[in-house]
Amino acid sequence: MKVDEGAGRASTRQRQTKVRALDDHARQELKRKRLDALEQDNWHEDALEPDDDDYEPNESDDGELFLGEQKKGRKKSAGKGAKKKTRGGDQFREETGRTKSFDDIVDDEQYHKFPSWVPTYLSAAVKPSTRPPRKFCYLTGLAGKYKCPVTGDYLGSLEAYETHKETRLKGMV
Amino acid sequence: MAQAAGTIVVLDNGGHTCKAGFAGQVDPKRIVPNLIAKSKAERKTFVGDQFDACTDFSGLQYRLALEKGYPINWETEAEVWTRIFGKDVLAVNTADCRLMLSTPPLCPSSILATINEIVFEHFNFQSLCSACPQLLASYAQQAELEARSEPQPAATLVVDCGFSSTHIVPIFDAQAINFGIRRLAVGGKVLTNHLKQVISHRQWNVMDETHMINDVKEQMCYVSLDLAADLRAAAVRRGSAITREFVMPDYIHVTRGYVKPVVVDVDADASADASADAAGDRGGCSGAADGAGASVGAAGGARTPGPPAKKARPPDGSAVRGGGGGSAAGGVSARGGEAQQVLALGVERFGTGEVLFYPSDIGLDEAGIPEAIVQAVGATLPDLHEALYSNIVLTGGTAKLPNLAARLEAELRQLVPADFALNVRPAADPIVAAWRGASHFASGPLFERSSVSRDEYLEHGHAFVKRVCHN
């Protein structure tokens, strides 16, 4: 009996590994990205280009993305606009050599070399809560009864899971 | 220390708005958005106070002068400040003025150095005095009590729910206890962005409509006083007592979105009615609007079904729970023959404010405000604990969320020893509290002593300014 149980468990485990469940590291990374998105303001340097239609993509790696839409003029410019935005943002940061981001400034201060009793920007951060995190469905905001085995997100209902499958799980399962 | 005598300009340089005015006055002359905004629709760029002339807020892009509450983007900041000191706002010659400036607590010294350079070398101010806005807010409270000739509290704990972050600063003897300062990375900006994401998940894609969602937040969100009950009420699939509809602006007929008046469902069961009233009262923003909308007709009836298929409410009125119940769908509703686009918010109305209390809800590994307060107070000397707990002042724009103080007090009560008195008071006007304190301080006798003149700065450099202004 015991042997059978063990074998059964092993096989389910194997089945589970076939679905690419994200490991802790990947989940942390996703979480960090989402948190960063909450911090960002939405400035894009080139977004106000007056002649959107004259814009020619000079980055070759963009080409494949828009090949199919070459003839649909309207869509093309919209798609390129979106791509260009991100490019512009990056350019602005790097090329103008403008002020470093705040995180870089904090890094440069080398606070880790300060004695522990000196209050610094880093030491002022609130410590993690002693309470366990609450579980809410990220789609409906209600009680998160179920946990997605792949991403670790909490979901409240089957309906929410369907949406979850179409969005965050897209291309994974 | 500074001997110069000139007009004193008081600037509270906040993450979202910059409060500018002159010392001695009660209110700032102008509250200027501390950003450069780019409007796609109007193809214009608005710097600082020019933003007031903006009428089409769709797809606005912002470049904020502050990042995480600290002045970083000096290109933006210098432009905004130039507008503030220029003829449109304060109309001063900066070379004849002294400056009272708010700088965030525990500011990295390289940022302080840049501030000095900008103030003394770019704008040529005669002298500079800077202090953290939380300390200034406590001065405002002192001044208020003084005016009413009430006794001064022994110590103050300022909880500054700002735009970029929430700072908790214990203050004793008119000085911030710097080893007790705690910072929570949740502020108005995170709340707005979170709400934006949530709505984009559930209804319309509003990722580009930061301005509108900020409006939604200010008009509709509140802090729940009984989360379990509110969650139950919001889980009702249709006609939830908490759901309110926000009419989105189209920037042609409607330039500012508003909350649609609600007609309370007649067939809703008694408990739902009770919670409807409670929610209305607690919500604050929509309570007054209830009942005024009789002519609008049943909100639910006039609406065409939104994107997710919705089941009809069972005839017996029992609640259907779970699923997309809380997230009522947005839709197009007809009113007076004109199509309006509405945003229906249920659970989001109080879910947004929850992030302040449980940042773990958005995956942030930090304690909420109540626990952060306990951490901040715990870092100070034990003798101060009771005094700090008995005088907690809430400032900052996010403190305007209805019920924030009440909820905070309720949650703190569970964490603070029972024999300690607990008092959470919102500042009279949370947004300008720090400015008022700064104005009061700058017109007082201590201002001269704690400001650095231009000559002194040129002679002694950044470290001297830091010593004088930041102890």
UniProtKB/TrEMBL annotation, chain A:
CDD domains hit by this protein: zf-HIT_ZNHIT1_like
Keyword Zinc: yes
InterPro entries according to UniProt: Vps71/ZNHIT1
Lineage start: Eukaryota, Haptista, Haptophyta, Pavlovophyceae, Pavlovales
Record protein name field: Vps72/YL1 C-terminal domain-containing protein
Superkingdom, taxonomy of origin: Eukaryota
Feature: compositional bias, Basic and acidic residues: 20-47, 87-101
Keywords: Metal-binding, Zinc, Zinc-finger
Compositional bias annotation for Acidic residues: 48-64
Source species of the chain: Diacronema lutheri (Unicellular marine alga)
From TrEMBL, chain B:
GO CC annotations on file: cytoplasm; nucleus
UniProt subcellular location: Cytoplasm
InterPro entries in alphabetical order: Actin, ATPase_NBD
Keywords: Cytoplasm
Chain residue ranges for the region called Disordered: 294-333
CDD domains: ASKHA_NBD_Arp6
Bias (Gly residues): 320-329
Database matches in Gene3D superfamilies: 3.30.420.40, Actin, Chain A, domain 2, Actin, Chain A, domain 4
Top-rank lineage group of the source organism: Eukaryota
Biased composition (Low complexity): 294-304
PANTHER family (UniProt xref): ACTIN
Similarity field: Belongs to the actin family. ARP6 subfamily.
The protein, known as: Actin-related protein 6
Organism listed in the record: Diacronema lutheri
Lineage: Eukaryota, Haptista, Haptophyta, Pavlovophyceae, Pavlovales
